[in-house]
UniProtKB/TrEMBL annotation, chain A:
It is a multi-pass membrane protein. This is ABC transporter permease. One of its GO terms (cellular component) is plasma membrane. One of its GO terms (biological process) is transmembrane transport. It is found in: Cell membrane. It comes from the Bacteria. Keywords: Cell membrane, Membrane, Transmembrane, Transmembrane helix, Transport. It comes from Sulfitobacter albidus. Signal peptide: none annotated. The chain crosses the membrane at residues 34-52, 92-109, 115-138, 150-169, 202-225, 246-268. Residues 97-273 form the ABC transmembrane type-1 domain.
Automatic annotation (TrEMBL), chain B:
Residues 101-294 form the ABC transmembrane type-1 domain. Keywords: Cell membrane, Membrane, Transmembrane, Transmembrane helix, Transport. The chain crosses the membrane at residues 7-27, 106-131, 143-165, 171-191, 227-250, 270-293. It is a multi-pass membrane protein. Coiled coil: none annotated. The keyword Ribonucleoprotein does not apply. CDD domains: TM_PBP2. The lineage of its organism: Bacteria, Pseudomonadati, Pseudomonadota, Alphaproteobacteria, Rhodobacterales. It comes from the Bacteria. This is ABC transporter permease subunit.
Length: 280, 306
């Protein structure tokens, strides 16, 4: 009972600090902007720990954060092997292939107004479909190792990136295009100097959507057959053994990897599209 | 309207590619089967055939090519086979039959819609909270954005099993996944929408001496409608994907996800493919429906669709 009371107290304390910080005079400083969400996140973890202890929740249903941290410490090698198999091989290879293919098709389609008008609706339609359902088919075709995961990921990221790139390449004003024409610029100089740069915000939007899809695709595809390594494999087998701390450890790794992947894309975007209004 | 022809061309291109791919994908299987049935196949040993690519084998056995389009257990079924299977399982069976895709479709659709409704409702409430409370904005919003980068969908099957072990089964666990997935797009979109009135419009309301609720109902809420619809279209397809993934490796017996898996495990590729396409059609219909409602609503409100 003491744990529960302590949990409620921690929650009230965390919220009170945040109210003070967010409504206080220093609320717009960088440190306050970072501190408030961090305190919120930390409060949730601490309350979770205390509630699990206080209500004596079975670790088979919900392990405490300390159990998960302990597991991450003790199974570092396994987690690293899973990370390499799923993220570095499956997700990353598929992401690069899918993005490159989408980019190439977008440039090709862009040469014809007719094709652009055909590809945008079809691509948008395909992006909304449950493509992850193709996972069993790809596993059957390409075997259970990472190649089939890369294929699922490639197909999943292909359409969002394609649609965004095609839309981006169209996003130049008539004035800008006319200016290029007065410079006697041909197709390629116009593409590289005007249209690709102005398409960059759109392309990065597609690439950012793709980061999450890549992770989902790689992990879900592993549920349908994988060698005895990989995050999806580990999640489903650990689950079978009721080792929920391992499942949560993989969740933590997946969350960190997903956020890092997204973060890297945002950083590259900031470097590349520093001129865009949304970055200033 | 003027993009109908280009769209049809692109679709025809995809279909053409599919039709061509059927030949090399199935050629080895077809050649083995044809030899067992007594037909002449070159080269005549399976090991020699393994060394050839699908295209090479097809060129040496031109007379077998038609068979690749009518193979019972193909690696890649031909489009007309999938269409035939879909017509048969949608119109050819009674709706209550376990073999009817309409039945399986409903098993998937019901939790999707329930979850979507829950997720959207909660998402809108949280967005209002975020817009009006600085503390919530500063503490919850960053996590709402981070949560988008976490592949939580990959854990859907586990959530189903955990809830199942606690005695919660049926519609609700799948709805929970669907709700979670539609929740965050709605939060992010609605926050953006509720903040979309510019300073000039807010100032105008202040000069009218409008109260806070008036500002909400008369300015912020209407201004957020286009953003809400954009989020709804993302949310409903995410909900459907979530429900299907939740059905995949959990031993579910009904629903599109279960059908995809059953076809895979019992060597009936047509069943999997028909379920996949039916799921795609359902997603398209749902998104299309919201697009239609969006256009009608915005027209009534005197706005342009984004």
């Amino acid at each position: 009972m003491m744990y529960v009371a302590l949990g409620i107290a921690v929650w009230i304390l965390g919220w009170w600090i945040n109210v003070r910080l967010a409504n206080g005079a220093a609320s717009d400083t960088v440190s306050a902007r970072v501190a408030v969400p961090l305190i919120f996140g930390l409060t949730i973890v601490v309350v979770w720990e205390l509630m699990v202890r206080g209500f004596e929740v079975s670790p088979v249903i919900l392990p405490a954060p300390t159990d998960v941290i302990e597991r991450i410490g003790s199974s570092g090698a396994t987690l690293w092997a899973d990370f390499r198999q799923t993220i570095l091989k499956g997700a990353l290879v598929g992401y690069v292939l899918g993005a490159a293919a989408a980019f190439a098709v977008a440039i090709l389609a862009d040469r014809s107004e007719f094709l652009t008008r055909g590809i945008l609706p079809v691509g948008g339609f395909m992006a909304a479909l449950p493509i992850v359902g193709t996972a069993p088919i790809f596993v059957k075709w390409l075997g259970s190792d990472w190649e089939s995961k890369a294929a699922v990921v490639g197909v999943m990221v292909f359409f969002p990136i394609l649609v965004n790139t095609v839309a981006g390449l169209k996003d130049t004003s008539a004035m800008q295009r006319d200016l290029m024409r007065t410079y006697a610029a041909g197709y390629w100089p116009t593409l590289f100097k005007l249209r690709l740069p102005s398409a960059a915000p759109f392309i990065f939007n597609g690439l950012k959507i793709g980061t999450t899809l890549a992770l989902i695709g790689a992990i879900v595809a592993e549920f349908f057959g994988s060698p005895t390594v990989g995050m999806g494999f580990r999640i489903s087998t650990s689950f079978g053994q009721l080792a929920l701390d391992m499942v949560w450890a993989e969740i933590v790794v997946a969350a960190l990897a997903g956020s890092a992947f997204y973060g890297i894309m945002v950083l590259i975007e900031k470097r590349v599209t520093f001129w865009h209004p949304s970055q200033r | 309207m003027r993009s109908i022809l280009p769209v049809l061309t692109v679709v025809a291109g995809i279909l053409g590619f599919w039709l061509l791919a059927v030949i090399p994908m199935n050629m080895h299987l077809v050649a083995d089967q044809a030899q067992r049935d007594g037909a002449v196949v070159t080269p005549d040993t399976p090991t020699a055939r393994q060394d050839l690519s699908g295209v090479g084998l097809a060129l040496k056995n031109v007379h077998l090519i038609p068979l690749t389009y009518d193979f019972q257990r193909p690696r890649l079924p031909a489009p007309q086979q999938v269409a035939g299977e879909m017509v048969d399982t949608i119109f050819g069976r009674s709706v209550t039959s376990k073999r009817s895709l309409v039945y399986h479709g409903w098993v998937t659709l019901a939790p999707t819609l329930l979850g979507f409704a829950i997720g959207t409702g909660l998402g809108i409430l949280l967005a209002v909270g975020i817009v009006y409370s600085r503390v919530m904005d500063r503490s919850v919003m960053p996590w709402a954005i981070v949560s988008q980068t976490i592949p939580i969908l990959a854990l859907a099957p586990m959530v189903i099993v955990v809830l199942g072990s606690m005695g919660i089964q049926g519609l609700f666990p799948k709805s929970l996944i669907a709700a979670y997935l539609s929740f965050f797009p709605v939060v992010v979109g609605m926050v953006k929408g509720l903040r979309s009135p510019d300073a000039m419009q807010l100032d105008l309301l202040r000069t009218y001496n409008a109260s806070k609720p008036q500002g909400f109902w008369n300015l912020r809420l209407p201004a957020s409608v286009p953003y809400l619809f954009a989020s709804l279209k993302i949310g409903i397809s995410a909900s459907l994907v979530g429900t299907i993934v939740a059905e995949l490796p959990t031993g579910a017996r009904a629903g599109f996800g279960a059908r995809m898996l059953v076809g895979d495990q019992y060597g009936q590729p047509l069943v999997s493919w028909a379920a996949l396409f039916a799921a795609a059609l359902t997603a398209a219909a749902l998104v299309g429906l919201f697009g239609l409602i969006e256009r009608m609503t915005l027209k009534r409100m005197g706005m342009q669709a984004a």
